[in-house]
Structure formats: C-alpha cells, structure tokens
Amino acid sequence: TATSDGGKWNNPVSRIHLRAWTSMSGRYLHISIPSEKFECSKNTSILFYHTKLRNHPEGVTFYYQVVSGHQVVDKGILSPRRSWDDIAYRIPLDSSSSSMRVSGYSVSEFSLTVKPSWGLSPNARLMVYYAHPNGEIIADAVPLEFKPCDSNEVLLSFAAKSVQPGTPATLSLSAAQGSVCGTWALDQALLQKTAEAEFTPEKLLKLLTPLEAKPNRPTVLKGHCVLSEENWHFAGPTLFLDSAAAFAESSVQVITDMKINVRPCWEDGGMWTPEHGARVGIDDGGDGEIADLAPATTVPKSAVDIRSHFPETWLWELRHIERAAPLNLSREIPHSVTKWKAGALCLHPTRGLGMAADTVNAVQPFFIQLSLPAVAIRGETIPITASLFNYLRSCIPVKFGLIVDASCLKLIGSPQKRFCLCSEDTVSLRLYARSDCLGQLNITAHALGLSKDDSICEPGSVTETRTARDSLRKSLHVLAEGTPREKSVSEYVCLKAPTNSTGSRRFILKLPGNAIHGSSKGVFTVSGDILSPVLASGLESIVKLPTACGEQNLAILATNVVVLDYLISSGHFNHPLEAKLRRNILTGYEQQLNYRHPNNGYSAFGSADPEPSLWLTAFIVRTYGKARQYVSLDDTELSLNTQWLLGHQYDTGCFPSVGRVLNSQLKGGIQGTSLSPLTAYVLISLLEANATLSPHVQETAVQCLVEESAQEQDSYSLALHAYALALLRHRNAQQTFHLLWSRGELEADGTLHWSRNVSSAVAVETSGYAILSCLTLHKEAGVSLALPAVQWLLKQRNHRGGFISTQDTVIAMQALAKYAKMVVLPDTRLTLTVSSQHMEPRDLHVEPANAMLLQEMPIPILPATLELNVTGKGCAFVQATAKYNVPAPTNTNNFDLLVEPSHTACKPKLKLCASYLLSWGMSGMVIIQVHLQTGFRFSRVIDDLEVKKIEEEMNKVNLYFDELSNRRTCVTLVLTQEYEVRDGLPTAVILQDYYDPDMIVLRNYTIPTCERDQQNIVDTQLPLQSDVVQQSVPSEGAHLSNFRNIDQEPDFPDGPEANLPVTVPAPED
To answer: Alpha-2-macroglobulin domain: from which residue to which, for each copy (predicted)?
Structure first.
C-alpha cells in the first residue's frame, strides 16, 4: 500500500534476486520444506524433487545429513524404489549461452521424515546429495527452523490465577528428575519499562545461535574459475549456483576427486559467495517501508495491616528436583497490586535445558497506589501522588490521607480528604513534601471506608455496607547535600609484656569547617586481627570506587584469594567466610573470561579494546596462579596466558607496554620512557604464580632491571625492583632493599612510609611492596623491621578495610596478610576502655574466641576526642572513623570538566566535556560519576565513542574512560524527567583518576525548567480547586465504549476546557 509522508508518496518496493542452479550433467535436486516451523518431537515429512537418470533404471543412492552447531546430529541413506511414478513436472532452463541450454527432464519426488529434538540448535541445516555416474556431485541444502524445543519438559503453574497481595501463593514446578531449576518472577510494570528484563525461550534460542558454524567460502579448485585468494573479496556475484554452494552453506568442507564446482565462469571474475547464495532472497535496499505487524464478590480489606513490601523482582530460588512428582512452593506474594510473570529454567545432565512460565495477578478491589521519588536531597520539595481505586460494586464514603513525621517532612497541601468513591472510579491526592531530615523517611497512605456516613455520597446511590480499608507505606531516602567524605584514625596497639600491662591512646576526630550540618556520624571499631575489618565487610565493599571493568573485577577476585590464603595458612579452618570466598573466586573467574581476547590476552574492557593489555594479563597470571591452590581453575588457560606474556619479552629482557596500561605509575615515570617498572611487575606476577621460567627468561629480565636500577629511580619503581629480586633471591636483592629502606620517611610516631611527591594511592602501594620485599628477604627476622611500615599502612585503611583504589588495596592486603601470618598471637587478652566528653566509658574485650570478629560502637557526637585505655597482653587493631559531607572537594589542576545541562522541548540532556591538562599527554583510567538530580532518571548516552563502559546505580551513572588527553572528549546523557521537584538542589558531576583518586574535579549542575509550549505553560498556571483529582477507570472490555461517529463538526467547549484566549499586542507607533 502506498503511503503519503508530508505530501510525498512512498511506493513500497521489493526486490528479489533469483539465481539458477547449474549442473554439467543437467541433473538437479531440490528440497522443499514447509513454511511453518517444525514442532518438537513431531515427525515431519520433507519432500525432495530430483531429475531422473536416463539409462540408469536401478536408480541412485541419496545421502543426507543434518548439521547443527559444530556437528552432524543425524545422517542416513535413501534409496528410492523404481516403482515411484514420475510427476508432470518439468524444469525449464533458458540461457543465452548454448552450453548452458538444458532440455526438460522427468522429475521424481520422494520424502524424508525428520523428528526435531532438543539437541538441534535453531539454525540447523539439512543437506542431501548423490554421486552422478559421470563423476559429478548433485546436492542441495536448506535451513531448518524449529519452534522452541525442550526434551526436559518443565511445567510451572500457580494454583490460583489471582491472589491477594500479602497472602501465600502456591507454585507448582515439575521437571525431569535430577534437574536443577532456577525460578524468578518479574513485576509487569518493570517489563513495561525494560522489556529486555524478561528471559524467554526465544532469547534462550538466540543464545545458542552464536554456537553455529559460519558458512564457508566454496572450495576454489585449481583449473576452475582461477581466482587468487587475495582477490576473493572483490569477486562479484554470479547468476548461477552449484553443489559447492550447498556444502558451503552447511559449513561442510569437501575433500573429493569428483566435480562440485561446475558453475560458469565470467570474465569479471564473478563467483558465488555465501552472502549471495540464497536460492531466493529479498533485497533490503528497497525504497519502501516495512512495518512491524502485531497481530465478583471481593474482600474489601487488604490482607496485611500496612502494605510495605514492593520489590520489582521476586521468587529468586534454586531448587533440586529430587522426585518425579511436582514440587509445590508456597511463598507469600509481595504487596504490590500487579501482574507477576514467573519463570523457571531447569538443567538436567542428560535431558538438557527446559523452560516454563506462568502469571499470577495480585489484586484486591480497594487499594492505594503511592508515587514518589526513591531518593531526594534534604531541602528539596518533592511531589507525592496517592491514588485510590475502587473496584467494588458500590459507592463508598471514604476518608483518604497521608501520614508523615511532621518534624522531618513538611506537607504542602491538605493531607486528608473525604469524598464518595463509586465503583470503577479512582481519586488522586496530589501534594508536595519538603524533607528536613536525613535517612529513610516513611510516608504512609490510609484509606478507610465510612460505612455509617451517608452524607458524603449522593442520596439514592448504592453504598457499601462493609468497611473497606487499605494502608500503604513507602520510604523516601533523603541524602545530605554535598559530597560524602570520611576520615579514619587507626593504630595497631601491642602490649608485649609477659604479664598484664597498660597503655593509653588518644584519637581526635575533627570535622572540617565546611562540613554539612547533620551529615556527620562516627564509629569506633576494634579487632584482634588486622584482617578482621575485611572479613566483616564480606569483601563486597572493600573497594570504594565503582568496579565494573576487567581490572576492577580482577582486583576484587585477587583480594578474595589473599584473604582465603590467609585464613587457611593461619589455621582458621572452617571459617564461616571460607565457602563464600571460594564461591566468589569461581564467580570472579567466570566473569573475568568476558574480558579475554582470542589470542589469550586480557584487557580492561574485553572486545571493546583493540588489543590485550600486557599489564592486565600479568595481573591475571598472578591471580590465577594463586587461586588454583584453593579452587579448580583451567590450567590450560593459565598456561596460554603465560605463553602470551613471554611471547612479548624483548631480547633485552624487558617487557614492553602492549595495550592499555591503566595504572599510569607503571608506564615508567612522568614521560613513560622506562620499561623497568612494567618488567618488574610482569616478573613478580610470573614468580608468584609459580610459572615455569627458563633461565634465559629470568636472567635477561633481571638484566633489564639491573641496568635500569643504575639510573635514578622513584621509590615506587625501586620497591617493585626490590620485591622482584627478593623473590628470585638474587645477589643484588639486599643492596636494592637497603637502598629502598633508606628512602623511607620516619614519622614522629615511629611509622615509616614512602610518600614523598606521590599520591596517597601510590604511597600505599609502594609501602605494600616494601613490606613484601622485607618479609620475603628476611623471613621472621623481618617482622620487627617491617612493623613501622605496617603501622603506617594500617593508619591509611578506610572503614571498610580497604584503602584508596584497587591496585593499592590488593598489594596492601597482600602485605598485611603476609605479615599477619608471621605474627600469630593466640593468647591475646586485652580490655579496651573507650570514653569521650559525650560518651560514657565502655569496655571492649579482645580474646582468642573473638579475635577474628570486628567489634563496633557508634560515636554519638562529632567532633570528638576519644580516650582509649588498654590493659592486658597481645595486639589489637583499633580505628575511629568520621563520615561527613562537604559542599565540594578541592579541585586539582590535572583535569578540566565542562557540564552543560539543557531542557529544550522538555527533553533533558546533560553534556559533559573532559580533558587532561598536563602537558605530557595521557592520563590513566578515568571515571566520571554523574549524580542524577532528584526526579530524573538516566535513559541513554549519545556520542559515546570514547566511553568504554556505562554503569547505573541507584541515583548515579558511572562513565568509564580508559584515558583522557589534552583534546576535549565530550559525551551527552539523555535523561527522563519522572517527577517535577520544586526547589531542586544542584547535583554533582565528579571526574576522578581511578588509580589516583586525589586527582579530582567536581562541577555542580542544575537542569533548567522545561521550556514548554504556550499551551502547557497556561495549563500549569490554572488554579486548582482541590488537591483531589477524580476520574473514571474503564472496566475490562469497556475500552472506548462511549465512542461515537458523528457527521458534523463538533462545537468548541465552554468553561474551563474552552480554547485559551489569544491576546495580540497593539503595533508600536
């Protein structure tokens, strides 16, 4: 059908390319498949047509194969009987070439029966061929399309299709005995926003599609259409196909002395290619457009007093099917009034995969919906809409309102109303609320039917005599304005006297002068083991920065390996965290494979990077080599990674910077000219992984380090050299170590560190390598020597047990774990008394039974000075932490950040432009954290060529860049406004160097008011007669029931809905 677009007619056009099959013997074979997809486990007959052979009454033998994935799943032989009748079917073939003119032949038909099974992937192919007596192979191949097919039949059903929110719902699940099934349920509202969240059998089939072998180019036989391999891609399409196409389409290699390439040759070098090899194809370059075609008695009370549980997903369980009988699960359904789409995916060792789905409606006839932002900033005025629905059969006089903590939330508008709500009607209460407190603030909506009050509803209306009610509660998470910051004061306290002794310490927690009022809170912790804070956090939050690329995933994996090694090596067997650590390592290992390149190297963003990173691959080898002591990993993978590393070593023994080196310190100083830091890092990784290294590899690598050591080095590079040589037990190890130790800075409190002219993260990592080299070289004798460095390192630790970035956290954790294994104090018995001017004295006890636990107590008021008195013997790690917000951190001069918000045509956007200001060119990996303004949500990114990864969190978006240069890099975020917030506060965009978080730039932004059209501007200025808006809800099946066709032009309405008056100003004189 022709369509008009702005006066221009679009005529639909379809193009079809037909290619004739050719045979030098004039014999052909054609497979005819049904138009419908094949059904699972159902016999389907497929017809074949072939030209009969003259002078061969005995007939021929046909061979068939079904190719699926990378294997032949079915094959056989067919021998048609001579009694088959010929059919009146001729194959006319006309060609201008006399050699290609073929007269008609008699055609026979026969059939083959196939029965699809679950082992077939969605793109299997059927191929049939036979050998002609003159030496030619006659063949044809066609694709076979299947409906979703499961040999593991899974059944999933709810006992009732409708249940009341908050009541048990019974779910029946059955599958092949021995299956493991995962279940889930998704809110229909979630699927309306994010359709890709639903996992369907069709998506499962698509996951299998990449396993299909790709079609091969047809074999180029010598003497036939001679064409060099280099010119293949420049060959034009041919008008003819032959049996070689059938084999190539099926990804089958042919080794034969028979003839299969028999198509005519053209002077322009035209040959068959898979792209042009379809028997009949439709060209996608037409000018037309193709459109997608898509073909009560009730209980008036809610089941719970207050509905408050509203997850978007539910029923995440893993179940083992132990019996053939159905497994019945009774679970309380969440409190949302919605439709839940449940699914089950089952896996059996021999029966394979199976899927099933079902839905259940969570309904009640009288209910409230509450709409508000999930997060707000203190001081903002947010919109709240409470809607009440009545699906009872009569009118109800109703009292409807909101209840909040008046000291924290100020409501603008009347929070309570009385009205008559009739059947299938809804009423909305629209208010604004200003938040003055921090934390989770509850907002509760109540609706109560006033059955004894007849004055509200009109006389004569049918009213409900039973009491209908519903209550709903949601939380608003109110954040403090500004940017979060924290400061920790730590100390490793040791009393080593043989009898009980005493000691005292003072911890001063200060707040900066610009700390946001009310945002501060403090905590004091104590543990008998220096790794207890890590164990208590479960390692999920040990790295404070976002962790969504290959290096950061590996850093968390490496930390799990370090902690597991410490637990086992120090004798803490059967620790509750041990099983979790093993699971984390296996999960991290599987996730890390996503960042692998085909040539066995790894990079931070996997296939998004042009080549692997030698530095990250070394980190991989280092981590995998340690992890395989505790979990089962693929040794072949580790061997291939190691070979890839060694294959890049120069003859000089140095390792070059291949791919991205995201940690700029390993690039070799400011100018990045030295290869020794990276060479030392690679050598350390290989040695810690116990890789098999030839003497030549070791000697040349050491030579690279020794030659570079003769030059002036920074402390970071020197620490790498010292640890590498210590691992090798090299003769220069002692000399290098003493040089490193002499550069340490000794503080007045007795701690030792290497932090001159470097960032905090680099100082932590340098100190970690220094401790490792000390303990590796001097063993137990190095414990006392390393203690000052250990004490300084512990002072840098944050409240979660981590440090600043990823690499410094991994190395510092490794150093502390090695130190802790050498210092085991099983008889620690300490009493710590903590007090302050605003806190009564409190005793905390550390003994062998709780040494691995982290004891925590709040500090009620900040700033504070804590007095700590310690008695007993042994060691303990104590820490006091202050958390607070500041308006904005101090910006550095390393980066420039431009933020341009816009709201043109009510389409909010945020343009970000960033650049690196230092003259020598490139930064390390950079993260831009965009905190979203209240009422807005992230939609998508445009101009994202430089963005390596996008990560969404609750109220912010993280953009990853592997580097920035002095050339400005820009990206635009497209947002969606969900709520109109009054008095919206500025929100921050933070740019941060991932490996040097001290290098930071912050810009605040405010999205301007929507630039509406004139109609909408006037609409917003209309006076509201009431905070209550009432409308009718059409019942099911009544959609457009009042719609009527009319012949005349409708009159314009009067009153509030009339057209707006237009005022034209008088012209100027």
So the answer is: 313-402
Segment 61-102, tens digit of pLDDT: 888 888 876 677 788 888 765 433 343 333 343 333 333 333
Give the CA distances from residue 770 to residues 565, 720, 753, 766, in Å, rounded to whole numbers and listed in that order.
20, 8, 9, 6
Token duo for residue 751: 């701690």
pLDDT tens figures, 520-560: 999 999 998 888 887 776 565 666 555 567 887 888 888 88
Nearest to 335 by CA among 164, 165, 162: 165
Q: Which of these, 266, 225, 274, lies nearest to 246 by C-alpha position? A: 274
Domains, in order of start, for the chain:
15-148+218-272 (2.60.40.1930), 155-210+296-362 (2.20.130.20), 366-479 (2.60.40.10), 485-528+829-887 (2.60.120.1540), 529-827 (1.50.10.20), 890-1005 (2.60.40.690)
Report how far apart, in Å, the C-alpha atoms of 650 and of each of 452, 518, 619, 647 are.
92, 59, 19, 9
Q: Look up tokens 């050719």; give the residue.
A: 22
Instruction: Tell me which amino acid residue 461 is.
Output: S
What pTM was estimated for this model as a whole?
A: 0.66
Query: Hunting for tokens 């690279």 — which residue is that?
Result: 704
CB distance 46 to 32 below 8 Å: yes
Burial class (CB in 10 A: 0-12, 13-18, 19+), 430: middle
The sign of the torsion formed by the CA atoms of 820, 823, 824, 828 equals: negative
DSSP letter for 596, please.
Answer: B
What lies within 8 Å, CB to CB, of 500 at 6+ separation is 871, 872, 873
CA distance 415 to 433: 10
Identify any residues that bridge with 441 across adjacent strands, giving them in sequence order.
Answer: 476
Tell me 545's DSSP state.
S
Which has the higher per-residue pLDDT, 142 or 213? 142
**Helix 715-728 vs helix 760-778: crossing angle, to nearest 10:** 20
User: Got the DSSP string for 699-727?
Assistant: HHHHHHHHHHHTS---HHHHHHHHHHHHH
DSSP E strand stretches across 699-828:
745-746, 752-753
CB-based contact 289:133 (threshold 8 Å): no
Question: Is the Cβ–Cβ distance between 20 and 241 less than 8 Å?
Answer: yes
User: What pLDDT does residue 12 have?
Assistant: 59
d(CA 143, CA 33): 9
Q: Which residues on adjacent β-strands are paired with residue 382?
A: 433
Residue at token pair 């979060």: 484
Could you give phi then psi for residue 584, rounded to 5 degrees? -60, -40
Six token digits for residue 836: 């302050």
- Evaluate whether 911 touches 903 at the Cβ level (below 8 Å): no
Give the type of residue at 77.
I
SS3 41: coil
Interatomic CA distance for residues 365 and 937, integer angstroms: 32
Residue closest to 622 by CA, chosen among 520, 554, 671: 554
For 625, 720, 821, the CA distances from 777, given in Å and listed in that order, are 21, 14, 16
Tell me how crowded residue 760 is: count the other CB atoms within 10 A of its CB: 16
Strands 352-362 and 162-163: parallel
Describe the chain by its helix, strand, coil percentages, rounded to 5.
20, 35, 45
Instruction: Name the helix (H) or strand (E) containing 569.
Output: helix 550-569
Rg for the chain, CA atoms, rounded: 37
Instruction: Tell me the C-alpha distance between 696 and 653, whole Å.
Output: 9
User: ∠163-165-167 over CA atoms, to 5°?
Assistant: 70
Residue 687 neighbours by CB under 8 Å, 6+ apart: 693, 724, 727, 728
Query: Which pair of structure tokens corresponds to residue 141?
Result: 């191949």
Query: 204 CB contacts (<8 Å, ≥6 apart)?
Result: 148, 345, 353, 355
Residue carrying structure tokens 């501007």: 1017
Compute the distance between CA of residue 651 and CA of residue 1066 in angstroms, rounded to an integer: 87
Label residue 432 left, alpha or beta by phi (over 0 means left) and psi (-120 to 50 means alpha).
Answer: beta
